[in-house]
Amino acid sequence: MAHFQQSKELRFQLIDEHRSEFRVEKMCVVLGVSKSGYYKWLEATPSERQLRKKQLTERITWHFYDSQKRYGSPRIHNELVKEGWVVSERTVGKIMKENNLRSCMSGKFRVTTTDSKHQLPIAPNVLQQDFTATKPNQKWVADITYIPCRQGKLYLASILDLYTKQIVGWKLSNTMTTDLVLDALKQAYAAKKPAKGLIHHSDRGSQYASKEYRKQLKKYKMEASMSRRGNCYDNACIEAYHSILKRELIYCNPKFKTQAEAYQEIYRYLEFFYNRKRSNSTLGYISPYLFEQLYYEKNA
To answer: Which Pfam families did the record assign (predicted)?
Structure first.
């Protein structure tokens, strides 16, 4: 009788281990046990699978809230793999759905920030949608995006390094002037001190085509490159970054009450989360900052 019970226990465990692959009813028939008996056993005896799922759910929940609800199943799955978990992305997604853990998502809105109707000189499209780079500070892309705020409109100018995917310079202002993009450029240069020949790519906006901006690029010995008229794909990387910023920060929060609050939250997101912590799928799910450090360690 004891042997029979042990055999039955093993069959129930076998069903429990493979319930994500096969129907419980089918396995019960094949193994000669009742479906009701299996579920009674399941309720009475917490299996290793159930205990593992409990622990896994706790880690998934921790990563979800640690990322301030920004990570979906792909990134949480990769964080778990780093910790040594053997689990599929599908399972992570299923557990997140069961626990109502949904990453920040929202509808899109768009405010035009590019004024290309001007007579200022236009640089050739040197980049030609080649977004690859072999080292940091080889190619930078720049753009402006709108940030909603109850106290008044705000504009964010950003510069992204195509190798590290790091935001190397940024500036927030309530006016969309040449000074906005100039300050972002000066900040980036002061932080990275790039060598001569860096390709600086932007759209055809009047701010980037201005005499002051062109003069600063020349002073820094950077090569200017601009997108073709009306072709958003020519500057897709920086536009993708601004979409991430809005999805993970702007859309997840009520409209900023003040400009000071907007600056504080954007600073916190860019400097502490996006650059230093957020895993980037194109970098093998590590942060831009760590990716840059690994490059310099390897080439020291």
So the answer is: HTH_21 (PF13276), rve (PF00665)
